[in-house]
Amino acid sequence: MGECLFCGIVTGEIKARVIYEDENAIAFLDIAPYHRGHCLVIPRRHVDDGTIDPQSWGEVARGITTVANLLKEKLGATGVNILSNAGTVSGQEIFHFHVHVLPRYPSNPGMAALAQRDDGADDDLDGLFTQIMS
């Protein structure tokens, strides 16, 4: 596995609440979510960030769309923010390309509220996982 946390999730060495996977990508609940249902979509192969290899965006595209629609359907989100950080100064902490899919709700709309963590967003991640997968 080396030192990459997300490569460990891909290989199954590290457990995650996986809500989607295909031959190119895996999506799972973020363990430190900003909003209830915050997910990450990653390519199966290691790429440090999305600016290094444009092909990596194609590898995660289906996962991003599927997860966004799943969060709307299962959690009642009325919108999503889709973003990726590239490089330390942008806030990237794990250097395996990943895309955040953040469900958004009418109670906390807009870009200004995006970076504010919702109170309780990380409460009962197992229950949230069950709700999404049902």
Question: Nutshell version of this structure?
Answer:
With 134 residues, this protein is of the alpha+beta class. It has three helices and five strands, in the order αβββαββα.
In DSSP terms (H or I, runs of 4 or more residues), the helix count works out at 3
Rg measurement, Å:
14 Å
Could you tell me how far the N terminus lies from the C terminus, measured between alpha carbons in angstroms? 31 Å
- How does the helix and strand content classify structurally? alpha+beta
Sheet with the most strands, sense and barrel status? 5 strands, antiparallel
Q: Which range best describes the helical content: under 10%, 10-25%, 25-40%, 40-55%, 55-70% or over 70%?
A: 25-40%
Unreliable stretches covering 5 or more consecutive residues: none
Q: What amount of the residues lies in strands?
A: 15-25%
What overall geometry do the principal axes of the alpha carbons give? globular
Q: Write down how many β-strands occur, each being a DSSP E stretch of 2 or more residues.
A: 5
Run of helices and strands: HEEEHEEH
Average residue-wise pLDDT: 92
Biggest β-sheet: strands ordered side by side in the sheet: 1-2-3-5-4
